[in-house]
Amino acid sequence: MADHAESQETPAATADPGTETAGEVTSGPPEGSERPSRADVEGWVGARLDEISGTSVGKLEGAYVDAKSGLPEWILIRVGRFGHHCVVPAREAVAGVGHVWVPWDRNSIRRSPRVEAEGALTAGEELQLCSHYGIVEGLGRAAELAGRPDDETTAVSLGA
Fold this sequence. Notes:
The chain is of the alpha+beta class. The chain has a single domain, classed as Roll (SH3 type barrels). Strands 1, 2, 3, 4, 5, 6, 7 and 8 form an 8-stranded mixed β-sheet that branches. Strand 3 and strand 4 form a beta hairpin. The longest helix has 10 residues. The chain is globular.
């Protein structure tokens, strides 16, 4: 927790030039802070996913990792008891005591594009997800996907 507090005290000093940080959700953690590792995300499977205000959204059932690097990009959740699967960006997630928190409200998460529980995501699908979550072109995952063919497999299920 101390590391988190320290990273919150100096976001302007670590942000990319020209990027607003006050009051906005950025595409990833500030430069120099850690994003969740693959081991972190694997350990979160079975945890409850909560939205920004603390309301439960669903259960974390897996993740999608970058097809080349293996780094976690999307957290797979089941929304509701018999609901559909959707993903949220892994870079924005924080965890503790059986819960994972993300900075989006329940309705935004529920309205996100649906995904299959197993399989792969293409660059086009990931860019749709980036757009939905406000990850703009040139930042974070959207920047990593820039110029890649829409049908290229860019993320695979954690178990794949």
